[in-house]
Every structure is written in C-alpha cells, then in structure tokens.
Amino acid sequence: MKISHENFYLLNNISHLLQILFNRSKESGRLWALTMAKLINAQNFAPCEIKALFDSSESFFPLTEGNLHTLQNLSTVLSDEDKEELVIRFTAKLMTCNGTDLFGTEGAFGYLGILNSCLNTQDTDYGELMAGILKVIVSWRSDYEDSFLFSCNLQETNPQLLGLNIEMIRFISLLLKKPVSLLESEWDFVMCSMLAWLETTCENPEVFPAAQVQVFASVSCDLSASLSAYFQATTPEIVEKFPKNLMSEWQEFFSEGIHSLLLPLLAKITRKEQDVMETSFQNSILKSLGKALTYISKDQLLNHRLPAKFVAGQKTNLPDNLQTLLNTFSPLLLFRARPVQIAVYHMLNKLMSDLPKFDNVDLRSYGDEEEELLLYVSFYIYDDL
After folding, report:
1. Are residues 222 and 349 in the same domain?
2. What are the φ and ψ backbone dihedral angles of 315, each rounded to 5 degrees?
3. CA angle 280–281–284, rounded 5-degree value
4. What is the per-residue pLDDT across 144-175, written as a single tens digit (0 to 9) for each?
5. For residue range 23-47, what is the model confidence (pLDDT) as tens digits?
6. What residues are paired with 315 via a beta bridge?
7. 121 and 72 in contact (C-beta within 8 Å)?
8. Looking at the structure, do residues 330 and 225 belong to the same domain, yes or no?
C-alpha cells in the first residue's frame, strides 16, 4: 500500500481500517484474520459495524482458507441470527461429506471448524443438531476408519488428517458442555475415541515441537479433562438416565486409563524439558495436561505405574509407591512452568493427609548414607504455598 496523506487518513479511520483487514482476511486468512480479531477486541465495535463488513453469509461461500479463518475469528462478535444461519448451513453441508471430502477446507475439516467456533460462543440449545453431527462422525468411524488417529505414529501423518482429528476432538468436548442425551453406542464411541487419541498423544512426545501436534496433544488432554469434569459433576438424577454400567465403566476403566497414560507423560516431559519456560512450545501442552491431571484420585495416584525412584541414602518410613511419587513430583513444585507447579500441587495435596500415619514406622534407607532432601521438600513447599 502506498503511503500518502489520503491513505494515512483512511488508515486512521478505525472503521475503514477494519474493512481493509476484513477484506485481506477473506483473501488470505492467517495473520490477517488474527490482526482483524485483535482490532475488534481492542475497539469493541458495535454489532451493526460488524454486520456492515459483509452483505450476507453467502459472501463466505465457497469456504476458502481465507473465509474459514475470517469466520473463526468473527464468531465471537457475530449476532445470534448470523451464527444460527451459519450453524444450520454448515451442518447441512457436513451431512453430505464422504471419504473424499473429509480433509479439505471445503469439506468436513472446514465445516467442523466453523461449527466449533460458532457453537463455542452460542447459548442457543442445539442439542438435537449436535447429536446429529455426532452421528455423522460415528458413521465416519465405520466407513473411513483410517481417518481417525488412534494409537498411531504422528510423524507419518499429513496435516490435513491432523486438522480433521483436532476438529472432531473439539466438537466432542463442546458436546459434553451441552444437555445432550447420548445412546450407549455413542457413549462407547466418545470414551473409546478419547482414550485412543490420548494413547496417540502419549506415544508421540518426540514430535511435540511441531505446532499442529501441540494442538492435537492439547485438545486430546482437554477432552479427557472435559469427560472427567462431566462425570464428576453428575447427580443421581443424571446417573439414572445413563445407559446401564456407564458410570462403572468410566470409574473402573476409562478414568483409570486416562491417568495411567498422563501421569507418566508428565514425568517424561518434565524430565526432558527441565528448563521449560512459560513461553516455550511445551507450555500449551503442559496447561492441558496439568488440567487433566487435577482430576486424578488419591487411589489412582497411589496405584501409579511410574518407574521406581529412590535416592541413595534417603531415609524414609513411607511405602515404596508413595516414596516414588514424592521423589518424582515434589521437585516439580519448583519447575519453571507454572502449569506444572499447579498440577503437582493439586496431586500432592491429595496425599498430605496420609503422610502422618507413617511417622511411627521404622525408618529405612536406600544405599549409601547421604543427605536426605526429597522426603521433606513437599512438606516445606506445601506449607509455604
């Protein structure tokens, strides 16, 4: 753009600047869409000013990358009427997708991306519509099994397939926040898929530096946290409406499966990235991982499958499994990334009340006599918190 007095004056007009950013966002998306969203959030535009940017929702078709990114960043400020129209139109398009249409922007990936953005900011009850979308996703599992990244190597996965799985995971997380009644087969799909996606995450920590893999890992952990929160908040009235054995299956298998995967993952990541900073690539994953682990129960902690960790000369009167927990996680209360500190605090807090009962147990030591430290570091930091 040429810099002239006229152009400088136009750019100083905020409404005109917004229109320029909107047009460029529709053309190219990406950073232009983020810049447009930043301006909208900073200036608090009136709904009529947002509506003036486009004639109708028809202007966003066909769904190019630019239109996709623009709608995703406009979703929080669109009127309820505009969002409702978009939800209905893109749901109808999603229903017609087949195997060749799943991965493209003008396909299931793009349609789910728009739906997730609109439904995440929408208070309208779309229970039946969302249940219909879930049925479509379940049918893909039967018809296009290879489209689901279950227990696989992400190094060999193309970005389009990763993107589709990310949007499916996001949709299921949204579904759990809405009052939707699911069939037994649908609950099976949701919980089995969650665990399979989580297994994929835990099997691929070496590719976490890849941006799209970070997102996949984060939303997978978020889904497990959403399920944990959902079942933790259930009332007896809600449980009565569940399919038979759903609650026991959750408690005895799926919840246990989540934490048997995530607890070792936290230990592995933090051992490898001891100096991780708040702004590092790991931080988004650590936030989601930490949130998921706050739902771990005391019994699940005590029955962990972590490798034994003892310190030479350390005197202790604690059982080996409890001592391993303290030796593994107590030092992480001083970890540089705050999400790790918070997650570890919540986990160790569940164990503190059990420690005094071992005070009268005879001390034993591991190996050579050295200065004891790790046994009491949790008490010291816990009291300081």
Report:
1. no
2. -85, 130
3. 100
4. 999 999 989 999 899 999 999 999 999 999 99
5. 999 999 999 999 999 999 988 888 8
6. 365
7. no
8. no
Same domain for 143 and 231, yes or no, is yes
Residues forming beta bridges with residue 365, ordered by sequence position: 315
Question: Which amino acid is present at 354?
Answer: D
Q: Which pair of structure tokens corresponds to residue 342?
A: 């918070």
Query: Torsion-angle region of residue 151: left (phi > 0), alpha (psi -120 to 50) or beta?
Result: left
Assigned domain for 132 exists: yes
Query: Domain range for residue 344?
Result: 297-306+316-359
Tokens found for residue 31: 């950073």
Main-chain dihedrals φ then ψ at residue 314, nearest 5 degrees: -75, 120
Per the structure, the count of domains in the chain is 3
- Taking 80 as the threshold, does the pLDDT of residue 278 lie above it? no
- Cβ atoms of 293 and 259 within 8 Å: the answer is yes
Q: What's the pLDDT tens digit per position in 191-226? A: 999 999 999 999 999 999 899 999 999 999 999 999
Place of tokens 């917004």: 18
User: What are the tokens at 93?
Assistant: 């398009």
Fill in the amino acid letter for 170: R
How many CB atoms lie under 10 A from the CB of residue 58?
9
Q: Which helix (H) or strand (E) holds 365?
A: strand 364-366
Phi/psi of residue 365, nearest 5 degrees: -130, 160
Distance CA 345, CA 152 (A): 32
Q: Is the pLDDT of residue 375 over 50?
A: no
Burial track 289-308 (b if 16+ CB lie within 10 A, e otherwise): bbbbbbbbeeebbeebebee
**Coil vs helix vs strand at 102:** coil
Contact criterion met (CB below 8 Å) for 131 and 189: no
Could you identify the residue written with the tokens 């279950």?
150
Q: How confident is the model at residue 13 (pLDDT cuts 50, 70, 90)?
A: confident
Residue 43 inside a domain? The answer is yes
How would you classify the pairing of strands 314-316 and 364-366? antiparallel
| Other C-beta atoms lying within 10 Å of the C-beta of residue 154 | 21
Phi, psi angles (nearest 5°) of residue 247: -65, -40
Shared domain check, 92 and 30: no
